[in-house]
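Input set for joint prediction.
Command: fold jointly, output C-alpha cells.
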Amino acid sequence: MKVYVPGPLRSYTGNSAVVEAEGATLEGLLEALDRTCPGIRFRMIDEQDGIRPHIRFFVNTEPAPRLDTPLGSGDEVHIICALSGG
Amino acid sequence: MLPTLLIGTRKGAFQLQADAARETWAIHGPAMLGNIINHVVQDPRDRRTVLMAAKTGHLGPTVFRSSDCGRTWKEAARPPAFPKASDGETAEVVDHVFSLAPGHASEPGVWYAGTSPQALFRSEDGGDTWESLAGFNNHPQRRAWIGDPADAPPDGARLHSILIDPRDPAHMYIGMSLGGVFESTTTGADWMPLNRGCAADYIPTPEPEYGHDPHCVRLHPRQPDRLYQQNHCGIYRMDRADGKWVRIGDNMPREVGDIGFPMVVHPRDPETAWVFPMDGTTVWPRTSPDGKPAVYATRDGGSSWRRQDRGLPPEQGWFTVFRQAMTADSADPAGLYFGTTGGDVWASRDEGENWTCAARYLPRILSIEVAEFD
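C-alpha cells >
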C-alpha cells in the first residue's frame, strides 16, 4: 500500500514522498517501513511504543491514533508532522 | 595542530577552521540544517570520528556519526533509548540527547551520552549502538536524585557533564541539572552524591545530599582530583581528597555575582579557569550583567578573579552563553572560545586577554567544542 511521507522524514526514503510498504496493522506497516528505511520508525515512535507528540497517522482520511489500527490492502497511510516550531 | 571549532546550533551544525595564527576562521556548513544540534564532539582517540546529538522539533532524538572529520554523516543504528518498560514500571522516553563524551583513552569506541530526562547511555562501538547504563538509570535512588519531571525547566532537565578520570576508566563523575554531581568508581555500576558544601538555596532543607543544580562541571585533565563547577548557586572548586565544594564565586565582584552557565579549565594549569557571568538577580534575566559581557578568569584556583572584556561589546550586549558553548583549545597560549544566543562566535588566542568575533549571524549557539584533526 502507499505510504505518504512528510518532508522531515524523506531523508530516510531517498527523498521519496510516497513509498510502498505492507502490514496488517499500522505497527506492522511501520516495522516493514523501518526494514527498508532503517531508523525511520524511532523518529516517529518512542521506545515505549508511543506515537511522538508531533506525529499523526491517517488511514485514508481517518485519524489513526493507535498502532494496532488494522489496515487493508487498498488503504493509503498518511504520516503527518505537526506544523509548529520556530 | 590547528583547532577546528565544532558548533552545535538551534538550526544545524557548523565548523570554524582556524589559520595557523588562529586569527582568521573559515566557516563550513551547515550540516543537518534545521535540526537542533545540542552537541558535536570529536573522538580524540582516532581524531577522525565525530558524533553529533540531534533532534528536530517534530521527530525523535538521534545521534549522527561521521568517520571523516565531519564531512559526511550517518545515523546511529540504535540511538540512546530506555528499555521497554514492563507492566508496572515507569515508562521513560528520551526527549533529547544533550551531551556526548568519549570514553577513556584505553577504551577505544566507548562513548557516553547524557540525556533529558537525566539518564546515562553507553556505546561500545563508536556511537553506532547505545545501551541504557543500568547502574545509573535503574539505580534505586535515581528517581529521588533527578526530582519530579514536572519541576523540570521548560527545555527539560538534563544530564550534561560526563567526566572520565584520565587515570582510571572506572572513575567517573556526572553533573545533572537538576540533581547534582555524582561519582562512580565502578564504571557506572553504582553512584554516590558528591554535593557537600554546595548551596541549593531553593531547597528548604539545610545541606541536602542531592537536588543541586550544577550548570557545568569540569575536571582538570592534568590534575584530575581538581574539579570546578558553575552552579545555579555559585562557582565552586573541589579538591577530591577534601570531599567538599568551596564557593570560590564569593571572590567575584559583588556587582557581577557568580551565576552563569559555562565553566572552562586551562589545558595545563589547574589553577586557571574561566567563567562567563550572567544576571541571576530578580527574575533571572540570564543575560550579561548590565548588558556588559565579560569573561572572568582566575589564576589562583578561585581566590581572585580578573575581568577580561577587551574587544567584547562595551555595552548593550544582552546575549547569553549556554553551558556547553564555551571551551578552550590546547595551544600555548590557550585559545578560548564562546558562542552566544545571538549566533556570534567570539575567540581569544591569548587566554582571554583580547577577543575578536570569529563568526556572526549563526543560529542560536548551543555548544562549541574544539577538534584537532590530522
